[in-house]
Amino acid sequence: MTATNASKGAKVPIFYAERVIHMTEQQARSKAVSTALGYLGAVQGDARHAEILGIYNNFRPLPQGYAVKANDAWCSTFVSVVGMLLGWTDIMPPECSCGRMIELYRKHPQSKWEENDAYVPQPGDLIMYSWKDIATGFENQDNTLWPDHVGIIEKVEGRVITVIEGNYSKSVKRRNIAVNGRYIRGYCLPAYRLKASEAPAIPVAPDATPNDEIIWQYFKSKNTFTDEGIAGLMGNLYAESGLNPNNLENWMNEHLDISDEEFTRRVDDGTYNRDWFINKNGESGRGKDGGWGYGLNQATWWSRKQKLYDKAKAKGVSIGDLQMQLDYVWEELQGYPNVMATLKSARSVLAASNVVLAEYEKPADMSTSVQLKRAEYGQKYYDKFAAKEQKEDFEMLTPDEFYEKYFAPAMQRWNKETAALDPADWSEDAREWAEGNGLIKGVGEDADGEPIYQYKTYLTREMAATLFHRFYECIVAPAQER
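^ thats the sequence. predicted structure below, dont judge the formating
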């Protein structure tokens, strides 16, 4: 299939005309974070891990000339791929070695290396770790050991840093760590400010096209794809046709000196008959494959146009009928199991958009810039429709529903993240005394058999009562007996 109106800019009706926005530095940082989030949940050995390695290994020039293997550590490869997908390797130098990545940032003319472990990072910064950091006094001593791991900062709330990391337990996962916490080696700081003033600005889909809400609701009614999946699909359809089911590929308009509407009318009335439309032998196109695209998804190969034509005739509707073409796209997607599976589970517009681009639409140009542009189109539809639906859902909730859907999960997440934080150094003597006297026993053991104390969680009345009881049994009662 071939991109036409939206991507080439020619013959675009005024309501399809692209507009542009200018990024601030914070928006540039958010783009980096969103790109990383698109791979959240990827596991070493699965299709998305293979995609990460493929993007890195196909980059030229390949850093150090080394192609990352399937069983290699891939944390720095992951953050490098974020920069590659954005087309920002000029400020995010790619490298599959954490140590070499630090050196690249040290020598970079605009991006920089931040040695201070106590630095408070921003979203989009890269955090380096060294697992051999000292256990006592790390807050006051700079960690200068060889780096073992890297991730990209998602957010900083208070003193808690949330990081997105590749190769975290062989997957892309979040980690929470305290500002100036143990194991922090330092930070790589991409010069996002340079992207805030670049021109041309990022093209995005228009605020509305005549058919966008109809198409959104059609796929929502299937109760199959996530909102991110629908948005990623729609971004590709927009890039192919502007969401116009009458759309004829631009060069064919010029070849025939005809508009989309007139072409559609001639197919409907038989002036262009079935054999001509299918164009199997290329009498009016570029070669035996049919050569030119038509419709929402720009069906180009003769067999796909044959199915589209036959479906229109069977239903007794125009070849440019929107509902018929949506049914055609839906039925055709069933033959792409990986695309279907990804759209059913997608949690990022970028991931959904990329699978549609690479496995369903398959245009000649699938470069990084095309990937990002189509994802931008899809994000616009996500922001317009999914965000609106979520807002309406939120406003209709009863207090009990709000508690179950939002408050309780948020508190569970907060408790889990807080419990994972290491205690501060200033409490070490008190903790050792409490543990040694049996006042604090923990809530189980970790994978290494060490007690889990959860020192950063709040003290409940239940916990306080247990603490007082243990104090009496372990301290007061023995003293009274003496």
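The two ends are 89 Å apart (CA to CA).
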